[in-house]
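Re: export button greyed out
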Amino acid sequence: MIGTAKMGFVVGLLAAGIAAGPAMAQDSMKQDSMKQDDMKHDNMKHDEMMHEESAKRLFTGKFSGKVHKTEGRATVYQQADGKLLLRLTGFKTSNGPDVHVVLLAIKDRSENADSLKSNTERVELGKLKGNEGDQNYEIPAGTDLSKFTTVSIYCERFNANFGAAPLEKF
Amino acid sequence: MKNANGKSLSAKTKLTLAAAAIPVLLGGWWAFRPEKLFINQQVSEPAPASASREAQPSYTGKLESREHPTSGRATIYKESSRKQYLRLTDFATSNGPDVHVVLLKAEEPAMLKNIVPGNLEYVELGSLKGNQGDQNYDLPAGADVEKYQAVAIYCERFHAIFGVARLEKF
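Workaround output, generated via the alternate export path:
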């Protein structure tokens, strides 16, 4: 009895997930276009603003997929208040369980394998917000970007490196 | 008797197995979340606010040496639908006579060579302003960056390519 109930629960969850997926995607797309509109207005208004107070791009790199096909660009911004921000654009990877965005201290490319060595130092930036689309992650204050030079889409549960982007000076 | 006993046992075993399979299935589902293979999670966060008010980079690439040691980054910025410019940063090449900044087609075979054997098809951006330092070059109106996706530092007099950068979407 309990078994059937559990199975029913799982099936129900799956069904709900499948039903909700597209609906949620549509919603976020609507919001996107609204945001973009806002940005356009902003553009027009602030065309003549001084450039000094804007966010600066410090590093950039392209993703390549290993375990899963991963594409897009990772860019580190320094905002006007000095805070560092990682932005993913044109981004696409496969969805998965427990996927995180991390910075890795990788010295040579051979270390950037499908799975991470246990002693690879990393800085956690947060759970992957979405497997598609533009997204921002705050980089903790004091992170040494001359040391942590690779962005990785990392599945903690299976120690799998979905894809990585080596950062180079912009 | 024996037969009946055996039958009832196997039915019990079946039940136990089925009961045992449920947590295993649940565990497997939790770990792999297979439904995520079909459900995308789309996000679209805006760029850091202040950065979206100025010209946006549309293409970027790193310069590589050909005939002379050349380094730095080449980035095409889009100011408006009509105005684009190329910006060289951290740039260094060797000084020379009659050196120009040009756009080449991405598939241009001469890009791999130091000296161009015949005529080179390019979009002229201007004489090199300096062999070191950050510098901007306006793109002619209607320059098709989709087609001309490479930058070359080109000495017209000796048909020498000092360095090239393949541009990739930012």
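The radius of gyration of chain A is 19 Å. The button fix ships in the next patch.
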